[in-house]
TrEMBL record:
Segments forming a coiled coil: none
Identification of the protein by name: Desaturase
Organism: Roseovarius nubinhibens
Domain of life: Bacteria
Biological classification of the source: Bacteria, Pseudomonadati, Pseudomonadota, Alphaproteobacteria, Rhodobacterales
Recorded GO MF terms: iron ion binding; oxidoreductase activity
Subcellular location: Membrane
A cellular component term, taken from the record's GO annotations: membrane
Start and end residues of each Fatty acid hydroxylase domain: 52-179
Bilayer-crossing regions: 6-29, 41-63
A single GO BP: lipid biosynthetic process
Keyword terms of this UniProt record: Membrane, Transmembrane, Transmembrane helix
InterPro entries hit by this protein: Fatty_acid_hydroxylase (IPR006694), Sterol_Desaturase_Related (IPR050307)
Length: 199
């Protein structure tokens, strides 16, 4: 599983990651994407950093739900779901069609002005959170204190039940759109009810 995950992550994953970065830098350099500067708008320049993960989270939630539609699942997302017991390399282990969709969140900057630093931050955040959400660890501890929540259990439930927890924990899209599963018996009953199964 690890070698297979590394193959898809390093070939297709890094390929699309790099391709989208190059495309956005080219678009900015050639006037196809609006450019933002620190001197011109320092407040928006700073605000774009915390707003970017919210956008990535929203985009990921809906793209991920779309990938669970039968034809797209069979074509692309099934490759990722071969990983029932996930590890860090599972995060970007995707079919090229899924990578095309996954990294497309950066195209928001064809409309929303950004600086090249924002593009780098956007792409790094998107790729690295895919890895951290598949680590198998719920949080990173420093001196026995939680330094970083990784949300692995949340996503592990998705790999187990498929129809829950499409998003991440930074923004509670799953709670808002009725696809949240926290591992409790009550959540499992809601899932069975949604699937139309008795009891």
């Amino acid at each position: 599983q690890v070698r297979d995950n590394m193959f898809w992550s390093l070939t297709s994953g890094v390929g699309f990651w790099t391709g989208y970065e190059v495309l956005m830098f080219w678009a900015m350099a050639n006037g196809w994407a609006p450019h933002l500067s620190w001197a011109g708008s320092p407040v928006w320049f700073v605000l774009l950093f915390p707003l970017t993960p919210v956008w990535i989270s929203f985009h990921f939630y809906w793209i991920h739900r779309a990938l669970h539609w039968g034809p797209l699942y069979r074509l692309a997302h099934g490759l990722h779901h071969r990983n029932v017991n996930v590890g860090p390399w599972s995060g970007l282990s995707m079919h090229p069609v899924e990578h095309l969709m996954f990294f497309s969140s950066v195209l928001i900057h064809v409309i929303v002005p950004a600086h090249p630093l924002h593009i780098l931050f956007h792409m790094q955040h998107q790729a690295l959170t895919a890895a951290t959400s598949h680590t198998g660890y719920e949080s990173l501890l420093v001196k026995d204190r939680q330094a970083l929540a990784l949300g692995t259990f949340h996503h592990q439930m998705h790999h187990r039940y498929f129809e829950v927890n499409y998003g991440n924990l930074e923004v509670p899209w799953d709670k808002w759109f009725g696809s949240f599963h926290d591992g409790t018996a009550e959540a499992h009953e809601r899932l069975k009810s949604r699937r139309g199964r008795p009891g």
